[in-house]
Please model this.
Amino acid sequence: MYTGRFAPSPTGPLHFGSLVAALASWLDARASQGKWLVRMEDLDRARSRLSMADAILRQLDALGLGWDGPVTYQSARLDRYRSALDALERDGRVYWCCCSRREIADSATRFPGAVRVEGAALAYPGTCRNGMRSGARPRAMRLRATSELVRFADRLQGTIEQDVEREVGDFLVLRADGMFAYQLAVVVDDAEQGVTDVVRGADLLDSTPRQIVLQRLLGLAQPRYLHLPVAVDRTGAKLSKQTAAEAIAAPAASLRSALGFLGMPGAPAAARVDELLGWALEQWHPRNIPAVRSAPAPV
Ligand code: GLU
Model:
């Protein structure tokens, strides 16, 4: 059975960009008679707020985007991520790293194979791969990347390929603050929740190959992926909760703009949210969505 999900980080209320992700994943699930789950990605203790998770749920409710079953909170599932990390450790796939961000930036620029992917962090140069320098304090854990090309067919963006070792390097599975990394938690959760289809913003397109690497190592099923254009402001910056992008005020008007952004203009004026969603379900086809990685948010 089709199972989709919306996985916001509760660091602020929904804004236009996150509404687009919620709406598209809901429409794709409901148009397939599937389930739609909500998962709060609240592992970042410094930035996540329970009050924001509640605010997001109230917004989804007001937008008519109903979900199935109880909402899951990653903070309540740490034992699952621990077991996955233990399995990777038993198989010799991970190692301790003592590098600070500064050290990585310094040595990465001298690392001959390092490539700087536009807008992305530098690839980890592999400093601790064969052991940390003596006396160093272990800070974080990294997954040993291998030099295979990871390829997948995105339902909107087409074929995506990444050489994880060269473009990203050995990546974090346990962060320096002791928290499990997003990449690890997301694959554990998507698999355990039986998610068949991930529909989310294209800002995560470059993360997907890392997630596929982890799925393969942990023997987890690989869902299908659809990466939506990310809504950007006039300067080309992603709208984000941190930059205090305007929270959604009027649900019906916001839905209508989000539908336009997803390639479905012409939603009936003055319709209620349930009428708009009914109309959108009849129109829904991912091929109407512009196959780009970012697009300006309506003003
Ligand atoms: N929690 C992530 C975010 O808010 C989304 C993760 C995902 O959809 O895989 O950007």
Summary: The longest helix spans residues 16-31. The first strand starts at residue 3 and ends at 6. The CA atoms of residues 83 and 153 lie 29 Å apart.
